[in-house]
Amino acid sequence: MLERLKIKWGIKSDFQLIIIFIVFGITGSASAKLALPVLDLIGVHPHYFNDIPLGKVVYWILRIIIIFPIYQVLLIVVATLFFQFRFFWEFEKKMLKKIGLGFLFKK
After folding, report:
1. Cα–Cα distance between 10 and 87 in angstroms, integer?
2. Within 13 Å and on the Cβ side, how many CA atoms surround 3?
3. CA 107/CA 105 separation, integer angstroms
4. Residue 60's domain spans which residues?
5. Which of 63, 81, 86, 106 has the fewest Cβ atoms nearer than 10 Å?
6. For the stretch 39-57, what's the b/e string if a residue is b when 16 or more beta carbons lie within 10 angstroms of its beta carbon?
7. Mind listing the pLDDT tens digit for each residue in 28-66?
C-alpha cells in the first residue's frame, strides 16, 4: 500500500514518505487547534447556537469552514519547514483545482 502511494505521489524514498505523513499530521492537528481561537476572534461562540435548531451542527459546519483555509496555509508553511514545499505546492494546486478553485493557479 505504501509503495502505491510512493508511485502515485512520485516519491522515491521511505524517508520522504515519513516526512510527508508528519507534515500532514502536524498540519491537521494545528489547524483544528487554531480554529477555536480564530472563531473566538471573529466572535463565533458555541453558546450562540444553543437556541437554534441543529445549532451544534451549524457551529461545527462553521468551524470546518474556518479550518479549511487555515489548513491550506499551514500545509505550505509546515511543508516548507520540513523542506517539502515543492511536493505540497503541487498537492495543494491539484486539490484546489478539484474543488473548483483552479482559477487561482492560471498561468
Report:
1. 9
2. 0
3. 6
4. 2-105
5. 106
6. beeeeeeeeebeeeeeeee
7. 999 989 988 998 898 888 888 888 888 888 888 888 888
